Amino acid sequence: MIGFQARPLGAFAAAVATAIAALIAVADGDAAAGETSGAAPLRTERVVIMVIDGVRYRESLGERGAELWPNVNGPLAAEGILGRAFENRGLTATNPGHAAILCGEYQIIMNDGSMRPYKPTLFEAYRKATGAPAGACWLVSSKRKLAALSHSRAKGWGGELGASVDCGRDGGTKNRDDAATFARALEVLEQEKPTILVVALREPDSRGHGDDWEGYLAASRASDGYIAKMVEAIDALPHARGRTALFVTADHGRHDDGRLDGFVSHGDGCNGCRQLPFYARGPDFRRGFASETKAEQVDIAPTVGRLLGFEMPPTKRGRVLEELFAPASAPAPAPVPAPAPAPKSRRGKLY
Ligand SMILES: [Zn+2]
Ligand SMILES: [Zn+2]
């Protein structure tokens, strides 16, 4: 508040500084008597995480972003944060990528849904800290194999703390179209009022593996539409409006053009596989901000913990994304008024 406070002061000078600070605080009239200084309480009460499977940065926020993600790069950018240096630094495959997001730790797990993560998920950490019921956390996905991420196999954690799941269709035996998954996600948001909702869409990845360039682009564009619709839904629901943080990212990208089979596959450490779109919007976040700070998938879970007031178990790399948060004095953001089957899988390929 006062410039010279940072320097060492004599006792008298310090007393004067304190008195001046107190006078200024009273003059401002903004602090109730006895209220301690510090960050304002956070407003976020709910979190939605959308994961768009296998979309490259290039076809979401990068070179073709304005054309393919017009909502996120347009009106939504003004309401939130675009991450321009966001990466998967672990295995660039579906289940490992989603696990990094949900657990705050890169883990070597099978990509076919046969292995649960060995580090606790944010669902488990949240429920353990708060005693919230299973209905407080939801995992809704197009790919059935993501059901393996509803909880971990960590000792002292596990199923009794896991998320409610709705992954794939026909009882989780088949993958589902994104349109159906998204409709289900909106239903869950509206009816179950979850504290943590994770929505995982698959079509950019599925079209890419099908060597269907136009289909991949169309699926990426459709994902932008789902993101915009999610924002609309959040702003239309009294229990969500003004108290929900939305995160959007991907589990992995796809190979750079000219590397191996290019956009068709993924799974190595090339930039196309690692760099991901990132978007965040919420009542505690900056607005109209593009972050160039390096950030990673494993940072999302600790950040969600900060927003909702629980701690993720310690992780090797994950950090709270402090750069997303608006300065404590920032005014509350004003509330805003209110696709197709996939190709057959190929042996030996990462999905
Ligand atoms: Zn690659
Ligand atoms: Zn894939």
Task: Please sum up the structure shown.
The protein has helices spanning 11-28, 65-68, 70-73, 75-79, 94-103, 122-130, 178-191, 203-209, 213-236, 271-274, 300-308, and strands at residues 46-52, 81-83, 86-87, 137-141, 164-167, 196-201, 244-249, 275-276, 279-281, 289-291, 295-296. It is α/β, with parallel strands linked by helices and 351 residues long.
Could you give the topology of this structure?
Blueprint: H1 11-28, E1 46-52, H2 65-68, H3 70-73, H4 75-79, E2 81-83, E3 86-87, H5 94-103, H6 122-130, E4 137-141, E5 164-167, H7 178-191, E6 196-201, H8 203-209, H9 213-236, E7 244-249, H10 271-274, E8 275-276, E9 279-281, E10 289-291, E11 295-296, H11 300-308
Parallel strand pairs: 1-6, 1-7, 2-10, 3-11, 4-5, 4-6
Antiparallel strand pairs: 2-9, 3-8, 7-9
This protein binds zinc ion (ZN) (2 copies).
